[in-house]
Amino acid sequence: MPTDVVMPQMGESIFEGTITKWLKQAGDTVLKDEPLFEISTDKVDAEIPAPIAGVLSQILAPEGATVEVNTIVAVIGGAVTDSAPAAAPQAQSAAPQVPSQAQMAPPQVPQESGRKLRSSPLVRRIAAEHKVDLAHVPGTGSDGRITKDDILRHLTQPAEARAQAAAPQSVPQPATQAPPSDLPGQVVPMSKMRAIIAQRMLESKRISPHVHSVYKVDMTRIAHLRALHRAAFEQRHGIKLTYMPFIAAAVVQALRHFPILNSSLVDASIHYHANVNLGIAVALDWGLIVPVIRQAERQSFVQLARAVQDLAARARNKKLLPTEVEGSTFTLTNAGVFGGEFGTPILNQPEAAILAIGGLRKEPVVLTDAEGNDSIAIRSVQYFCLGFDHRIIDGADSGKFMMEFKKTLENWNQEIG
């Protein structure tokens, strides 16, 4: 019997997903749990496995289509159909949506100028949060349906462009999307992930008064310990010994001493988080994602090292779960991996602080011994930039935190394992 393949609900707050790539074509044989297609949601990119073994007989939603959860996107079994529809069947979901989510969504915007407005509950919720009249948002989905990409693209436009879009038009037309291209002079629509990143960065800058403070840390001891133990560490634990677990452990240590940096501002009150849920920003070819090491304060050095490499690998292979990119309380982002001295990062809301890691390099440094004698030596140094929300964190608190962080790294005495 034919089996329907539906758009899965990858988390309670996710209402829709975009099919970014079909890994199989109509007529292909698939195995149970074999990757079938890739999706992008507002939480995570993921590969979706086949629910059963059989022949992929029909693809109902093409690449690039944004469809609501529980919508049938393909069929396994039955007669093989070679063609897919030109647009996604977004409004033809065969399964009911989650009632609680539908009730939370604002009511459907009425028609205007003869145009019937079609959108998902998520789109209507975003419009309500930002006080956007959906009648002024061009829809690029099937039959002019307003997708999440459309509303996010509208929100990232300058105020002048929004005003122009809101002006009465004689014949409203859906916006057209140029084909993806890397050629100079081309106009390419943002991907779903890029549009989400753009929205969140704008929101963070609007919400928090950002302040940045840069510290130089002598990493010579860490570099020596890493070189000394890396071969044995990899042989013993099956993972590479990088600098990141040293940095992560030092951050956790500093946050224990200065918990204000592991807090959030909630309804005019400071919420001190019970655990350190450490976000690790991972650069992808198609964007940026921040998987989370939960309860990092309870992790050993080896556990931190394993978690960092596991989350980064699964992020790049689209194997993360939505719950693994939620709930961070402090974030690390590695600007130095691309050769930068340091970066001035934007806060990952609702966190109060974020630490950017600069590039590690050797420099001549003036050293002073116990008797006050100066000498010049070649040392491994690294710049770290702390970004923080000045509404709840003062410069003194940030400075104390960074000095504790610096001291832990320069005088490392923890077990490596």
How would you describe what is shown here?
The chain is globular. It starts with a strand and ends in a 7-residue tail after the last helix. Helix 3 (148-155) crosses helix 5. The protein has nine helices and 18 strands. The strands form five sheets. It has a six-stranded mixed sheet with strand order 9-18-17-16-12-15. The chain has 417 residues and is of the alpha+beta class. It folds into three domains: 3-76, Beta Barrel (OB fold (Dihydrolipoamide Acetyltransferase, E2P)), CATH 2.40.50; 105-165 and 189-207, Dihydrolipoamide Transferase, CATH 4.10.320; 210-410, 2-Layer Sandwich (Chloramphenicol Acetyltransferase). It is 27% helix and 25% strand. The longest helix has 18 residues, at 220-237. It has helices spanning 99-104, 121-129, 148-155, 159-166, 192-207, 220-237, 244-257, 301-316, 395-410, and strands at residues 3-6, 16-22, 29-30, 35-40, 45-49, 54-59, 66-68, 72-76, 210-218, 263-266, 269-272, 278-280, 282-284, 287-289, 292-293, 330-334, 353-368, 374-389. Residues 85-98, 100-114 and 168-179 have low confidence and may be disordered.
Short overview:
The protein has 417 residues and is α+β, with helices and mostly antiparallel strands.
Name its key features:
417 residues; alpha+beta; OB fold (Dihydrolipoamide Acetyltransferase, E2P); Dihydrolipoamide Transferase; Chloramphenicol Acetyltransferase; 3 domains; six-stranded mixed β-sheet; four-stranded antiparallel β-sheet; 18 strands; globular
